[in-house]
Amino acid sequence: MFVGRTAELASLRAELRAAGGGSARRAVVEGPEGIGKTALIHHALDGEAGVRVLTVSGEESERELRLGVVRQLMDEAALLNHGTGAGPCGVAAEPGGADPCAVDPCAAGQAVCELVARLSALETLAVVVDDAQWVDRASLRALSYVLRRVRVGRVLLLVACRDLADPWLPDGLRRMLAGDGTLVVTLGGLSASELAELAADPALAAGRRERGTYASPADAAKEALAALRTDAPCADARSNALRLDVRGLDVRGLDVRGLDVRGLDVPAGERGSAVPAGERRSDVPADERHPDVTAAARRLREHTLGNPLHARALLTILPPAAMADPGVRLPAPETYRRPFAASLHACAPATHRLVAACAVLGGRCPLHVAAAVATGIDEPLNTLEEAVTAGLLRELPGRLIDFPEPLARAAAYDGIGAGARARLHLAAARLADDDGAALRHRAAAADGPDEALAEELARFAAKAAQHGLWQEAAAHLDLAAGLTESPARRDELHTAVLEHVLIGGDVIRAAELAAVRNADPRPVRRYVLGRLALAAGRFDEASELLAEAWRHTEPGFAADVAEQLSWLRLVTGNRAEAANWARLSIEQPIAGPVARPHDVPALGGAPSAGAPSGSLAEAVAHLALDEAGQACAVLKRAVTAAGAAGLPHHRLLATALLAVAEHGLARWDEAVAHAEAALAEASALGQRWLLPWLDAACVAPLAAKGEHDRALAHAVAAGTAARRMRHVAGERQADLAMALLGAAELPADACEGGLGFVPDPRPARIEALVADGRLEEAERALDACDREGRAGGRRRQAERVRLAGLLLAARNVPTQAEEAFGRALELARASGRLREEAQAGAGPLQEPSSGGCLLEEARALLDLGRLLRRTGRRKAAAERLGAARAIFARLGARPLVERCAQELEACGLEPPATVRLGLTPQELSTATLVAGGLTNRQIARELLISVKTVEYHIGKIYTKLGIGSRVALAAKLAAYGPEVSFPASEAG
User: Fold this and answer.
1) Which helix (H) or strand (E) holds 182?
2) What is residue 495's three-state secondary structure?
3) Nearest to residue 245, comparing CAs of 263, 265, 225, 231?
4) d(C-alpha 438, C-alpha 122), whole Å
5) In Å, how far from its chain's centre is CA 494?
6) Which of 255, 350, 556, 794 could form a disulfide with 831 if both were Cys (CB 3.0 to 4.6 A apart)?
């Protein structure tokens, strides 16, 4: 099964097509052993019509056989029934003549050139030299001769080697292969998604069944059931599951009651990926349909670095269910272990001991520590030198040592006997400089249950959790579970592991842990599973589990349960209930260690009295008052605090709100960076419940920068994710985002609810209504904003006055409109000065630097300039428009910069580019909007012309510029850069 390598395949096939056109081509494919060089070449060349392939390869044991590969080439040509009349080296051997192997490499190379010329005259020829690092030197020199001289003809010369910088390759050959005109394809490891595709290969599952490599009948049953995952309804899949999947399996004593088509052997109430009856599998994300394969691919990528040879070897011996289990240590496959063991066997005993000690220490350790653990090493530096030379270890700065790759450590660890391994772990425990490492080594050395050690591990985990080290705490609790003899205590510890992993933010791993059977009867397990269901976006399941946990709640976790119920009510649209549950959480006698209940009602629009300093609630209050600067400062502290506490879900929310605050300050680059980084991290962690909010947070700053397509993609993604999860709060944010982009009508409840992740779309909507001539609707919308009575600063007041001015201008009341724009400009400038004075403690500034106020000031200047132009005062209009354009350019508001340029053109101040492009000012305005991604209808609305006129202009533009598409037009305008728009410095 061949997966991935799409770009590499395309490159090689393009070279082959170019060769078929008569231009000789050469290419190199390099990469480490097992990376798939040969498979890629064969896949690129096989099945190509009219192509003859001559393949030869080097062999390590024949590296000294003079001209051995040239012999292969001639033999291959003979097998193709194209007799050359030449001897093995291209020279006819005569009785009593010289030994063919003594032929000069240049003469052999000339013979190969003649052979290539004859064969390529008949059809396209591909000559493949594989494993060039094992080819004899004489053949390599002959190959250099061929590469220098074959310049024309239908031939592709393709060389595969591990490293193009290998000193075995002659200098001339390396320069030729690395020079211009040679395609160099360097192969890296497969990605996790490509490995997941490889793991789904039915041939690998069949091989595991034949070898009997399952850990238990349950593992075999799970994989067989997982093989039935299709897009058919669950009910149909379930009806066939047990009938088809247990054939041939020894199921005596196997409890199959908990098995279902998702392959999870857990009680019905604890399934980590429950799907409602009748829901089609295609509606469920791939990572939930195939959790084992997805998790296995992720671990496999880390363990093998994506090497296909070793990944396939591991998949042959381990089922995805076992590979996905983080408690299963992945071994080194035989394909890696055998050469590693051979290299180690050739080294001195001291090197054996150093490598074994490094494997036990986990790699990346000080040399002196590894030598002390190994004992008996008199010359550590000499021993390290031998290990590095053999490729077993690598030396890092600071006299640290490590393995060259994870598989090397696995191979070294696998090669240590059980007794020696235990002794090394105990020695490492005595030398460890922290309690956690010492405990881990003692646990690895244990030969059976050890209750005292288990309790030590649990106590250490509690201390780690207090410092926000949730994943480290989970690892120690997992070790404690493996050392306890009581099944009940083991289940309790596994519940604690699940909780700590979940609080640490890794929902994907938590779902994997939840898939393991656990008989823990305590209500706290229901709370943990409910928390997992909420984070994974399964709100119905979360409601059931959390309600049951609350009915049997205990003081130790009651606050956490109430807080989770509060979040659940918020995302499902019941803001009043969310506030009630938040109040209950706050009132509990024992506060939850990670709960932040004050933040929930604040995000829902309700006041949150008593919110602690530095909370999201405090930041939301600042944002509601249009105090984006203060909110930004609070949120930066909140992000730092959440990071220190090890709470990714809280940090991601704070980061998204930070993006909202930065948008309010017109810091759009920072806002986009923060919002998209939070979105990517939430996706990687499986925090699906946050995705609609985080996607929505990306929309406004992208739209402000003029990146409409990216903004729209985020808005659509937010709506899709919200509808799939029935995430009411997320769906509302998605609707607001679509309205902000003008892609949907304003939601009826736009005025309701608290602050969200999308700024108020009503001002943009009012502007659009005015532009469309729907003045009565615009006035009603503006009146509704005024009646709301929402507190706000002068920036918001300036915005309202400016919108009123737009209405007056549209109703042809220019004097009053001009007065309104003037008042808006004064309010924006005054707001900026006051903010600067408050921040700097200095006197008034001539130019405010607060982005939000600058933006509103520039908007007022733009609208005033448009009014002045329409009333015939072009000189004054140009001054305002030039000033507005300068501010917009400084802020990076590309759409508004272009709008200023259009207005300046209409003033008669035409940019030089119009003359050079041969376009009229109206055509250039249209072209600029087309290049910006606007539709014909949007352009018509912007320029106040009909759609038919827009279409007419576009046709004329295409004819004048000699192009035929919007993409070509955008490229043409981009070549003129800023000259397409009117420079601000010439505004007067």
Assistant:
1) strand 182-186
2) helix
3) 225
4) 71
5) 30
6) 794
DSSP result, 223-276: HHHHTT--SSBHHHHHHHHHHHHTTTS--TT---TT--TT---S-GGG-TT---
User: How long, in residues, is the chain?
Assistant: 988
Distance CA 504, CA 653 (A): 15
Amino acid letter for position 469: L
Lowest-confidence range among 119-133, 343-357, 474-488, 751-765?
751-765
Q: Which positions ≥6 away from 471 have C-beta within 8 Å?
A: 500, 501, 504, 506, 646
Phi-psi group of 812: left, alpha or beta (phi > 0 → left; psi -120 to 50 → alpha; rest → beta): left
Contact status, residue 857 vs residue 825, Cβ threshold 8 Å: yes
How crowded is residue 344: how many other Cβ atoms within 10 Å of its Cβ?
20
Dihedrals φ, ψ of 607, to 5°? -65, 145
244-250: long-range pairs with CB below 8 Å, 24+: 245/221, 246/221, 249/217, 249/220, 249/221, 249/224, 250/217
Residues 323/512, Cβ–Cβ less than 8 Å? no
> Can you tell me the distance from the alpha carbon of 674 to that of 688, in angstroms, rounded to the nearest whole number?
18
Say how many CA atoms lie within 13 Å of 778 toward its Cβ.
23
**Smallest Cα–Cα separation from 371: which of 389, 413, 403, 360?**
360
Give the 3-state DSSP-derived string for 803-835, with helices as H, strands as E and coil as C: HHHHHHHHCCCHHHHHHHHHHHHHHHHHHHHHH
Instruction: Say what angle helices 762-771 and 775-788 make with each other, to 10 degrees.
Output: 160
pTM, to two decimals? 0.70
Q: What angle (nearest 5°) sits at the alpha carbon of residue 940, between those of residues 939 and 943?
A: 80
Q: 242, 256 in Cβ contact below 8 A?
A: yes
Q: Is the pLDDT at 815 greater than 60, yes or no?
A: yes
Q: Quick check: 375 and 427 in contact, CB under 8 A? A: yes
Contact assessment for residue 716 and residue 905, using Cβ atoms and an 8 Å cutoff: no
Distance (Å, rounded) from C-alpha 712 to C-alpha 314? 42
Task: Specify the 3-state DSSP secondary structure of 158.
Answer: strand
Q: Which of 490, 552, 478, 500 is nearest to 522 (CA)?
A: 552
**Who has greater pLDDT, 980 or 560?**
560
Dihedral over Cα of 368, 372, 378, 384: its sign: negative
The Cα–Cα gap between 61 and 412 comes to 26
Q: 660 and 618 in contact (C-beta within 8 Å)?
A: no
For tokens 């160099």, name the residue. 184
Which of the 8 DSSP states describes residue 52?
E
Q: How far apart are alpha carbons 567 and 687 in whole angstroms?
A: 14
- pLDDT tens per residue across span 531-585: 999 999 999 999 999 999 999 988 888 999 999 999 999 999 999 999 999 999 9
Is the CB of residue 714 less than 8 Å from the CB of residue 700? no
pLDDT of residue 462 exceeding 90, the answer is yes
- Is residue 219 very low, low, confident or very high in pLDDT (cuts 50, 70, 90)? very low
Backbone angles phi, psi at 280, to 5 degrees: -80, 145
Structure tokens at 111: 């013979």
Q: Which of 695, 675, 682, 679 is nearest to 649 (CA)?
A: 682
390, 444 contact by CB (below 8 A): no
SS3 string of 345-408? HCCCHHHHHHHHHHHHHCCCEEHHHHHHHHCCCCCHHHHHHHHHHCCCCEEECCCEEECCCHHH
> What integer best gives the mean pLDDT of the chain?
81
**Token digits for 103?**
């032929």
Distances (CA, A) of 166 to 59, 161, 267: 16, 9, 57
Q: Please give the residue that has the higher pLDDT: either 962 or 350.
A: 350
